[in-house]
Task: structure prediction
Amino acid sequence: MLKLGVPSKGRLMEQTFDWFAARGVILSRAGSDREYAGRVEGHDGLHLVLLSAGEIPRELAAGRIQLGVTGSDLVRERLAGWRSHVVELAPMGFGHADLVLAVPACWRDCEGLDDFAAIATDFRAAHGFRLRIATKYHRLARAFLSAHEVADYQLIDSQGATEGTVANLTAEAIADITSSGETLRANHLKILPGALIHASQATLFAARSADPAALAGLARQLGLAGDKVNAMPHRHP
Ligand SMILES: Nc1ncnc2c1ncn2[C@@H]1O[C@H](COP(=O)(O)OP(=O)(O)OP(=O)(O)O)[C@@H](O)[C@H]1O
Ligand SMILES: O=P(O)(O)OC[C@H]1O[C@H](OP(=O)(O)OP(=O)(O)O)[C@H](O)[C@@H]1O
Result:
């Protein structure tokens, strides 16, 4: 039996159902909108569980689900060394969103990461504390800034309405998801050129601990390249 975790609400859930339906596997909610049980038609041995998108990476890593649909950003953020826990079986072509670094639109001289690094160093000298970047993507932001040799900053945890932190004077910059760019514009922020941290989209992941034969059967039905499944070493969670 393979357990498949799918986001429990909104566009991610609906587009996931459409993606599977187009490949002959019909997923649906079992009961009312409030019931988090699911039904599967078209593939024996597949069981649907509806979960928070943010919890799917952890459930995969723990081996409580063998397949999961979530944003590629969430897997990278939530799982240290994500490749040792999961395999990307298929990017699904929806749920596109860019994780970016954004700064006040009025920082006209800040045109790239080098400028940002210099501003951060000057900021620390002038204010006696490090420039604050608000985000819920701590792991990805840190790795990106370190790779670009930006050192004089501190991360401020923000679990929502992150774009508002700059106007509220609790941060100087943010690292957050943008899609249409509306929220950044409305909050007088601009994407720092060159600061695309991760281009995310909804992705079907498999746990490395999953049974390869069962996965190969499903991958065949979904028309996915078998090489990723076959290359998976069998690991116990
Ligand atoms: N405006 C957006 N447009 C497209 N995708 C987005 C947008 N905002 C977030 N996403 C993506 O949606 C996925 C789920 O995001 P998030 O963690 O905010 O979930 P949520 O809707 O708050 O659900 P939950 O709280 O149940 O986990 C992430 O992969 C994220 O990249
Ligand atoms: O570029 P845009 O199209 O304006 O979209 C970006 C916004 O969408 C997401 O927020 P969401 O509404 O998912 O809520 P959140 O703040 O709780 O993450 C994200 O955190 C941004 O705030």
User: Anything to note?
Assistant: The chain has a mean pLDDT of 95.
